[in-house]
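Slide 14.
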Amino acid sequence: MKVIAAAVQMASGPDKDRNLALAQRLIREAAARGAAIVVLPELFNWRGRRTEQEAAAEQLDGPSLGAMARLAQELRLYIVAGSITERIAGQSKAYNTSVLIGPQGEILGLYRKIHLFDVELSGRVSVSESETKMAGGEVICAATPIANFGLSVCYDLRFPELYRKLAERGATVFSIPSAFTYPTGEAHWEVLLRARAIENQVFVIAPGQFGPNAHGYSDYGNSMIVDPWGRVLARAGGEREEVITGCLNFDELEKVRRELPCLRHRRLN
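Slide 15: predicted structure.
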């Protein structure tokens, strides 16, 4: 079986209406190019100052995921709604939540980011995601007729144990919506994406944010789709909104797993 997948690269800002309109336009472009799977970047619907987060956060039945559900149903495709800032009643902090939506507009998978980005790169980037976000605690692999989706978000990429758990649960595609910082992205983004694909023998779809953001640093862009052999099927640039597509050949995935059965050769848990 072969499936066309798309990764959508954006530069989301504090104007939610603009972000949603752009996301919908780019999803339509992906669908017109034959995509059956479309993955949006982390916080695709809103990226603003932390002091504005409470007002911008949404519950799962809010307008952002509602718009994605309607579009998935209209276009009959799978959308990984990158992530949103999810409001939880009675909580002062929010979740960074990625949602897989099916072609009937239904939620098939709901993942709350486990690893929060608290980093101080002297003179370049200072981020403390845990100041305003709560960490999730559940590993999510969602089975569908075309692929088993292992859901993750951005900083999760640095924690291979999460992806091994997803592979053990049958994942054939990892979605990694991201807003990787420029310094860390330039150094590690491609290496880590290819490593997660190779060591787990899966496809990786990793859309990113690009350019200057509301937090005072720049995001790396360079959205990628990688195959189970570690080959880069598609790659965006670092300075523009873009849709990239790649053909996910699941017969090739089975061939790789059959000829190099390293997942069966594991001796340590």
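Speaker note: The longest helix spans residues 182-200.
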